[in-house]
Amino acid sequence: MDERKPSGDPPPDPVRFFKYEYAQQAGPKDPVKDALDISGADTETGVVLLSGNWFCQYSTNSGASFTSVDPTTIFPAWAGHNFCCDQIVIYVPSIDRFVWFMQHVKDANGIGAFRLAVASPAAIKKDFTHAWKAWRFTAKDFALSEDLDYPDLSFTNEFLHIATDATTTGGRLVIRIALKDIASAPASLAFRYTHPDKAKNAIGAHLTQDSPDGAFWVGQPNNSSLTVFSWPDSGTGYSWSTVNVATWPQSTLSSKGPNNNDWLTYENGSSVRYQESGSTRKGDELWVAWTASSGSGTSSGPTFKNAHVRIAVINLTTNAVSESQVWNNDYAFAYPSLCVNGQSEVGIAVAVGGTKNDAHTSVGILGDHTVFHVDQGDFTPTRWGDYVTVRRHNHNQSLFAGFGYYNTKDPGTAGTYEGNPFYVVYGRQSAGP
What we know:
The protein is mostly beta strands. It has four helices and 28 strands.
């Protein structure tokens, strides 16, 4: 499946899959209500952590086998705030810690909550259940009285950043915590946070990955501009600016699989359907990716037959913008995730589907005009997901670690499906293993 039509000879150093490991099946699940929402990270020592909406799995042998755990049994019960559902996992090499964000339901007063937990890879290898130090947060900690949803994590040289939607305000909340404090695991954590009412056009926006000296997140005030929010490590305040991009189409998001289920049904009705879901920093460039619909942004612009991914590269010094698209006449693309490896290549994980192929996760390197999959399953649900993940592979930083899934029919219950999460390590043939 092509990003765009290729031209010229194939790259002399092709992409190779050095590892493709299946985690444990997750299901059976309802194709209308349930989605996996895969996040994950790995370490130099071979510990891999992978999360989904209702499960978590870990490996201590570089993904050769996975153990499934129930997040509700790892930590004490929280009265009024049961665990559900979104999770994000990240690994911070500078403090040698996994960070695990677990969303919890709002209480009877509508107050949202989440749990933040950290553990070292060595402690996970010894005893996963007792490896974690955790802290609880509610919306009240950030002067809010509403539910929280759709999280993300990133880190810089000095700080961990947490993003979540303030659902009543309708804006993006970003929280900053010093990494040194997380590493020392005090009883409570000091933090700073932004005002979500200042970032209403950034609801659902993912945080920029691989940015060493400051956090970024990107809003969309309309379909022809982006708002770039910036919070440098060197300051206590954040700011934002606007850049113009080519107008993109915002009609109905739709893509039917071989079973005639439209896997973009939920995304089409979501408040974050066009929001930036992938962002990474490459030197002085901010790479931003989001889902756009079929059609044309303007009467004179190109027409896309399917939902596709837009990519904008913003020069942080000059604000100059270059753009490209991930598209194909036979397949739809959605939910992009981006990161940069040690070779300054930009990797992508993305959902792909169409009438000939059930919706699944593919991965690749931008600029190669191709993304790859190993297994696409045999079932397309109408509630496919909200995100997949690509990270820099920590054992060999010239490679990428991808976390995605595909779905298969559940043989025991008609109309339901099994989610099949996976962990893949890939990159240039010359860079591995």
